[in-house]
Amino acid sequence: MSTSPMNVVVGVAGGIAAYKACHVVRHFKEAGHQVRVVPTAAALNFVGAATFEALSGNPVSATVFDAVDEVQHVRVGKEADLVVIAPATADLLARMAHGCADDLLTTTLLVATCPVVVAPAMHTEMWEHPATQANVELLRSRGVIVLEPAHGRLTGNDTGPGRLLDPEQIVTLALAANASTSFRRDLEGKRVLITAGGTQEHIDPVRYIGNHSSGRQAYALAELAAQRGAEVSIVAANTEVLPTPAGAVVARVRSARDLQEAVFERAENQDVILMVAAVADVRPAEVAETKLKKGANDAQLQQLTLKENPDILRSLVQARDSGGMKAQPLIVGFAAETGSKERDALDLAREKLKRKGCDLLMFNEVSGDQVFGKLRNRGVLLGSDGSETPVADGTKLEVAGVILDEIAERLRRDS
């Protein structure tokens, strides 16, 4: 993801979600970028120009007849490093698809040669209408990145696909697109199952054995897989603070055994399974029904009897290889290793790949407070065929792009 300041144009169409564009502008500004807001005339019925000017620090205009001496209708698009439209209505998508140039936003779009990222927002019926879908397909064929909208509450009492993504999601995806993360639709129609977060094993009603996994890498994979056309299911262990990736179906679990049950319920017809969750290796042999008190229960607290949890990744591989699944999914494991003076962390990951038998294994070194809960990641993607692909330091969405590129290529080769 680019760390140098960019000139970002935020286009705003006239929908009820226009107020969320204010948060999009703020996120870009807080990241150090210059922002120029270009609304349609209809958008100014929802949010006034003064608001956008105050947030962006730049003048706001919707018409080509302002600043004519500066040739504004050409200059804004030519100077842009990134254009983000949030929200994009069905009307704006249609005008973009047909090359209209009747206001400052559409002329800017015709001039811009930088990445263009579009976040639609409209009622479900409008999003699913054949005309809108044809316009989206045409724009994507021209290289425009049209994001999948979220599922959720719409205007009034309606619920369904068409809700604008959270502003932070839009900004993160847009910056990843600017950093050349692929949004090509190479996972169209593929079913992808992803486990996320860290499991918790109860000691008593208050305490548990857990880990530091935040679920961010898994959610980045889900977010990008959905944007690349996949049908995404997530089995999430304790990731409530993260926004749900667009279009993904989430099943929430707590313990390793909960996660195992949920995964095997869904594994039958998957094309890809990514076991990203940090699963507890052990659990208490007995769970106290009431909170264990210091003093009265010191012996129990100091000498917990632990029991090994099931090896879910290995069990999945065995079920697939023995013909226990209708599909033959590509299975990806993850290895968070620390290494030691005696053993290199990467060697431990290589051994884990052989032991688990999965097709790919993403290795991360997590010593020194790296990776867990952080916004960036790096590592090595190991293949069962002996391949080793270094994954350079990047945002977790950029790392997800490298992993999904390899998955898409293997699916293509195997088809």
TrEMBL record:
CTP binds at residues 281, 291, 310-313, 334, 352, 356. Residues 1-191 are annotated as: Phosphopantothenoylcysteine decarboxylase. InterPro entries: CoaB-like_sf (IPR035929), CoaBC (IPR005252), DNA/pantothenate-metab_flavo_C (IPR007085), Flavin_trans-like (IPR036551), Flavoprotein (IPR003382). The keyword Chloroplast does not apply. In the C-terminal section; belongs to the PPC synthetase family. In the N-terminal section; belongs to the HFCD (homo-oligomeric flavin containing Cys decarboxylase) superfamily. Catalyzes two steps in the biosynthesis of coenzyme A. In the first step cysteine is conjugated to 4'-phosphopantothenate to form 4-phosphopantothenoylcysteine, in the latter compound is decarboxylated to form 4'-phosphopantotheine. This is Coenzyme A biosynthesis bifunctional protein CoaBC. The lineage of its organism: Bacteria, Bacillati, Actinomycetota, Actinomycetes, Mycobacteriales. The gene is coaBC.
